Structures
1.
Amino acid sequence: MLARELEKIEQGGPMSRPALIGDIGGTNARLALVTPGEITPHDIINLPCADYPGVIEAVHDYLERVGATGANAPQEACLAFACPVHAERVKMTNNHWAFSKVMFGRR
């Protein structure tokens, strides 16, 4: 299995692109990228949640700001939300954001 993942990296597959990471709270969405094989996040930006209609718009804005769109767009993400995420529909506890996990994953 590891050999297949390394082959993907060598061929410029999804593992060769930085992954999106984030801490989504009630006030701010803290987003960054992590390059495979490294542990230090880069392109860290705090976005005020009140400035965006939803998490998808905030993520899109972040990716545009750091130039991670199109062929450079992350294909993997790990986001922590300050609310329960057990149901398919997620409603943030301390802000106006709500989203479908399925729809979020498709974008």
2.
Amino acid sequence: MHRKRVGNRYYYYTTVRRGKSTKSVYLGVTRSTALKKIKNMGSKKELFSFNRTKRFVFCFLFFVFLSMLFFLVMYFMKDINITGRVVLDVDDKLSTNAYMVIDGERYEIPIELIKAENGGWYYNLNEIDVGDLRLEEGVHLIEIYDGNRLVYSDVVVI
């Protein structure tokens, strides 16, 4: 439905397609009467252009396809490191006698990561950046123990 202005008045029209020809149909002066006439006109296939509907459906499906492709690529690429920065994702709070084992060698966890909470001390391992450990390029096995309990284990490529 569209409206045309002639002089100081607006008139409502719609375009109906029948076969290859189109026809402009007068609907009235007020919007409410125009909407009533549209409802009484018949099937919606005649009211809307097939090309517009087809174009909308195509654009919608294309957008859905691109969204699905993006999420699939992100899902399968989540372990690929494109920035060169590796951060250990450890959500466990460890005691201060925790340590790391990198490729079989024992390392102390940096003291800057010790935090105080609820009257005790713990390691905040969400902040460990493997770049701070100054490891050589290659594949490394990083394990974190709290006492004798294995808390975290991961293979990191630098």
3.
Amino acid sequence: MADAPTKKSAARTSGQAATQAPGQAGADTGRKIRWDTKNMKNTYANVCNVTSTREEVVLLFGINQAWERGQSELEIELTDRIIMSPFAAKRLVTLLGNLMNEYESRYGALDVEAAAPAGATKN
């Protein structure tokens, strides 16, 4: 979320991703998707967490502003919550997987284990 795309690139990127995702609305019918960005806002996050129930998946985004290493406790300011259906979350997994494969083929593999903060747990 660091570099917010411009409206033009966001529409191009999102439009390409939407037509590539399996089961995405409009992808199998050949309909053109027009992305309305007039009410969109940009938010930066360097922390993300997820939780779920049977009916929904919740993405939590926030900012870790702790610059000193070795702190015994971190306080993360949560700034945004996105709630979606499990079906939309599954499509998001596919889109992010495709995006990260492309990113790593272009810029090299990311080692998320090395970047994880101390005390972080795997889900």
